[in-house]
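Lecture notes, structural biology module. Today: joint structure prediction for complexes of two components.
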Amino acid sequence: MKRIVVIGAGVMGTAIAIHLANNQRPVKIWGTSWDRQAINEMKETGKRKELDVDVPTSIEFFYDDQLAEAVTSSDVVILAVTSEGIEEITRELGPYLNESQVILNVTKGIDEASLTTISTVIEQALPEDLRDHIPVVKIGGPIIAKELAHSMYTEAVFASKNDRATKIAKKAFESPTFKGNITSDIDGVDLCAAFKNSYAIGMGIMSGVEVDTNNSKAALMARGTVEMSVIVEAYGGCIRTASGIAGIGDYYVTSQGGRNGIFGKYIGEGLSHEEAFEKMGTRTIEGLAATRNGYRLLEELEHDGRIEIAKDVPFFNEIYQILFEGKNAKEAMRNYWSQ
Amino acid sequence: MKRIVVIGAGVMGTAIAIHLANNQRPVKIWGTSWDRQAINEMKETGKRKELDVDVPTSIEFFYDDQLAEAVTSSDVVILAVTSEGIEEITRELGPYLNESQVILNVTKGIDEASLTTISTVIEQALPEDLRDHIPVVKIGGPIIAKELAHSMYTEAVFASKNDRATKIAKKAFESPTFKGNITSDIDGVDLCAAFKNSYAIGMGIMSGVEVDTNNSKAALMARGTVEMSVIVEAYGGCIRTASGIAGIGDYYVTSQGGRNGIFGKYIGEGLSHEEAFEKMGTRTIEGLAATRNGYRLLEELEHDGRIEIAKDVPFFNEIYQILFEGKNAKEAMRNYWSQ
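The predicted structure, tokenised, for the full assembly:
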């Protein structure tokens, strides 16, 4: 039985640990210094408030100064920290890793500095002598943390160029309510996980421009998926990835609720970013960074002749222009529809 | 400017006529004997109640005994009758058709007798000397009639092996709020239009088995799309059709509401078909016939070695077994998830 450590005690990391513990796996959670309070609370109350769930007593907790202890004794290392923290955490992990381990990446996004996927950032941040020996697996698909923690039916995909590693990850997660798939297209899964946040903002914008209609949203559900296929293919991934659970599935669940969609709706109604942030009480909208960094990545691909942004991904192009070029949302949607 | 006649004054036919009239096209509506009352009402009140909309005064109305007059003077003949009536109506049209015309098929389903698509049924029912000369175009995608009639943003696809015909249809519909696409894969579009009704029932069943969750629905949104691709490919169509507006788009809008989804939810909650019919006040659930006839079609494809139902379309297989083999819905979903 593989021993697992989850790095990061945020809501998603904790939900994964709870699922794995319910699935009879030996699980540890290691928290950053920011997670101290959350860990203390779970240890003291036996509950995780944000997930409205009891924490299985089999889970072992480790504080930020216990990284060595948590990692060296684990077979699978699950990275569930923020995209900003991922490179540093991976470097900190380095000394405690060994060739027999597998890394599973939960974090989503496109790295601002390198314009590569988060899984690539992780690979690059591994100690040089381990870089080609520790496989990185990306988990993709529609996973609302609270539903996972409550053993609601969930399906996901595990992606890695290393077939053995995807199977190890799949086996750890699979349960009567958790269905796992595998693919070698880790780039495609990573890109979908980032870009679907942009498209969820776009869907929100549409619902602000034209209230309570479904034809338009259904059209953009299809269009977003088609464009994600185009992006994945241009990057060198597999055309089918976006039409599966990592693309459509995750795009669907993200646009059914959540901050990206709500933010988009405000923008569609004509509010400024600042006004929308204020109404929402937060400035953390995942899809904003995904759109900005995603656009830069597409510019690079365009420069290499692999994509034409305006022609091949017109919906994404309008989303970018609304969010970062000050284009009027109503006008952008009218423009998209008449292309 | 192409002159258009819509055959059938049901809600969808009328909505299409209204859209085309608003788009400055010369439009006639011809009604069957069942449509007399609806036509009289529109002529007298200038409104269509079910669509909550004014009927443009430019639309000309024709009764069931005026078929010749309505059809001979038209360039595009839009068929918008029920799937049960489509073969007979096409035969009745025969004498008034000529080689310069284009037929546009709105009707969805898989024909029970021949297990072919509705567009194929239309082609076969044309007069022999016209069969290879009048192109049949299928319109696909997410179109809620009321939204179309109110000029809400809508996107669709026009499919035909005849490129000229798809362009004529596209041009007639395109407007600042209506975006048209074209494809040669008419089989794929027809199959998606039928099977998405089955998958919408399946999505409803899931929401009856597990209330208020999203991970499962998102997973099945992806799975249904993947399975539609498999079905279309096995039939000889294009793998990309299901990942576009005719597949995902129509599946999404159908499962967001409507009778298929509601019926499925009742079945998922454990009601019998009869109990669900009674609660809904109707026995007309499109997805039921689509699932029954669709399954028979897949059995034929399986017999020819083109698909393995249980392995290649497991979600559809469970839906069929729930609806027609008396399988318990909870058990079927548990079974699907653990495959």
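Point to remember: Chain B has two domains: 4-184, 192-337.
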